[in-house]
Design a protein that fits this description.
Blueprint lengths: L7 H4 L20 H18 L5 H31 L12 H30 L1 H5 L6 H34 L1
Amino acid sequence: MTGMSIRPDVATSTEGTVFDIGYQTYAGPREGRYRARYAVFKDGVRTALGLGRGARAKILPWSFVAVLVGIAFVMALVIGAVFRFAPGEAAQLNLPNHSDFYGIASIFFFVFAAVVAPELLCPDRRDGVINLYLVRPLTGSDYIVARWSAFLVVTLAVAWLPQFVLLVGLTMGN
C-alpha cells in the first residue's frame, strides 16, 4: 500500500451533519382495504369521464353523453309536438317511445363502452401504476372490482340520463 496516505483528520472524525428535510411519520387513521377500493373506484369514475384531466380527455366521453342526450331531447320534442298539435293522430302515428330510444342509441352505448373500458385498465398497466396499487392493502380482485364498478356506474349514468331527459320531455309534452 505504498503511495496511499490516510489523512488523520478524516479517518478519526466522528462528527457528521444531519439534515432535517421534513419527513414525518403518518399520524392519521389507517383506513384499510375499504378506503383503498373506494379510492380506486373514485379514480376510475374520474378517468372514465375525463375529470381532472385535460380537454382532450374530456372530449370523447362527454361528446357521447351529448349525442345521447341530444337524441332523447329531439325524440321528446317531436313526440311532444305531435301530441300538442295533432292529439287525435298521435295514436295512429306509432311514435317512438323509451324502448325505441335504445334501438336508436345502442350503437353509441357500445362505442362508449369500447372507449371507456380500456381507458380504465390499460394506462395503469402501461405506466406500472398497478404494481403500486397492489402493494397492500389492496388485492388484485379489489382493484378489478373497483374498476369494474366505476365502469358500471358511469355506463348506467350515460344510459339513464337520456332516458330521464326523454321522460321529462314526454311528461311535459302531454
